[in-house]
């Protein structure tokens, strides 16, 4: 099994105060994103998420979605983004 680099943690170590995400007028530094992502990754672990497990996400673009993308990678889970434009039967199939 290959080890995936955690580029968010690396970026937070190199330039913690640099803006890493901006949504409208809100900004988060790489250090803030790294901390928020770490907390979510720990929550996923406590819920029993294991490496290789699929984690489905039906979310709009947001801070929480960015956190989930990175937290899933940290846990080794496989993020399965679901399209919010799909019908309920199509989502149920997925």
Write structural notes for this entry.
α2 packs across α3. The two termini are 26 Å apart. The strands form 2 sheets. A two-stranded antiparallel ribbon has the order 1-2. The chain has a two-stranded parallel sheet with strand order 3-4. The chain contains 4 helices and 4 strands; from the N terminus they run αββαβαβα. By secondary structure, the chain is an alpha+beta fold.
Write the layout of secondary structure elements.
Blueprint: H1 7-14, E1 19-23, E2 26-29, H2 30-46, E3 54-57, H3 63-75, E4 78-81, H4 88-93
Parallel strand pairs: 3-4
Antiparallel strand pairs: 1-2
The largest sheet is: 2 strands, antiparallel
What is Rg? 15 Å
Q: What's the tally of helices?
A: 4
**Arithmetic mean of pLDDT:** 93
In short:
With 94 residues, the protein is α+β, with helices and mostly antiparallel strands.
Looking at this protein, list some descriptive labels:
two-stranded parallel ribbon; 94 residues; globular; single chain
């Amino acid at each position: 099994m290959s080890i995936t680099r955690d580029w968010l943690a690396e970026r937070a170590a190199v330039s913690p105060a640099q803006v890493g995400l901006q949504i409208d007028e809100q900004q988060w530094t790489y250090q803030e994103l790294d901390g928020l992502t770490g907390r979510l990754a720990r929550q996923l672990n406590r819920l029993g998420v294991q490496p290789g497990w699929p984690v489905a996400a039906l979310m709009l673009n947001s801070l929480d979605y960015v956190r989930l993308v990175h937290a899933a990678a940290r846990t080794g889970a496989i993020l399965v983004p679901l399209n919010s434009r799909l019908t309920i039967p199509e989502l149920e199939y997925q």
